[in-house]
Amino acid sequence: MGGGILLFYLDKIDNIEPLFSISGFVYWSLLFYWAARWAIRQRRSILKLKTEKEKTELLHLQNQVNPHFFFNMLNNLYDWVGKDPEKAQALILKFSDMMRYSIYDGQKDFVALDEEITYLENYIELHKMRYHNKINVQFNTEIAANSIKIVPLLFIMLLENAFKHGVESLGDNAYVTSKLFSTGTTITFEVENNFNPDEVSGEPGIGLKNLKRRLELVCPKKHNLLFSINKAVYKTSLTLKYDD
């Protein structure tokens, strides 16, 4: 009798064990699923916050483009309105074009290369018109294709730096030579200017710091920024990679 009861319970246990195995598998599978889903949601949330932070930082950096130049131009316009109204009108037209491009097109992710070239040309022409002393400014372009799209307002920092620390510190006999050219899937902007070594500090200006940070945000691993100094000549080169 006792042996029969024992066999009965052993048979029940054998039948229950598979049930426990299946339920355990289901339990741990569901637990793993919900844990993985939570981890994915957390990662997406972190990435979203990081992206929003970078967008905010990038917008802040874009809003700092050319403040030095714009303030100086407004002062020059004030002077020219009384001295030479026709020249003042020409300055105002070019200045308004630059402001429009900086405020509206400068907020875009990409712009046509020819629009960026026009912006650089207007910047150079305004500088030529505002300086009384003799300066030598050259800007050459060699572009393989007209359909190139680039991030706006990256090159202007280098050009602004050349005028600010070169032309404005030297006065007479100052020069700025710049060249924009494309080869294959890269586009390069080179700027060379002379400067007064006595008026140059060892610390990079806020404009170059902003440029480096913008490049890290908008085109990481797709740019090459170089600087070199030889006696009283300063050279900069920025190369960007773009997709066909």
List keywords for this structure.
alpha+beta; 20% strand; Heat Shock Protein 90; 244 residues; two-stranded antiparallel sheet; 5-stranded mixed sheet; 7 strands; 59% helix
Task: Summarize it.
The chain is an alpha+beta fold and 244 residues long.
What features would you describe in this structure?
- The structure is a single chain.
- This protein has 244 residues and is of the alpha+beta class.
- Helices cover 59% and strands 20% of the residues.
- The strands form two sheets. Strands 2-4-5-7-6 form a five-stranded mixed sheet, covered by helices on one side.
- β6 (223-230) and β7 (233-241) form a beta hairpin.
- The model is unreliable at 5-10 and 45-53 (pLDDT under 50).
CATH class membership of the largest domain? Alpha Beta
Written as H for each helix and E for each strand, in order along the chain, the element string is: HHHEHEEHEEHEE
Compute the number of helices: 6
Give the strand line-up of the largest sheet: 2-4-5-7-6
Described by its quaternary structure, the protein is: single chain
Give the DSSP E fraction (strand runs of 2 or more residues): 15-25%
Shape: elongated
Residue share in helix? 55-70%
Annotated CATH topology of the largest domain: Heat Shock Protein 90
CATH superfamily of the largest domain: Histidine kinase-like ATPase, C-terminal domain
The tally of strands reads: 7
- The N- to C-terminal Cα distance equals 88 Å
Summarize the main sheet. Answer: 5 strands, mixed
| Number of discrete domains | 2
Structural Rg: 31 Å
Structural class: alpha+beta
Low-confidence stretches: 5-10, 45-53
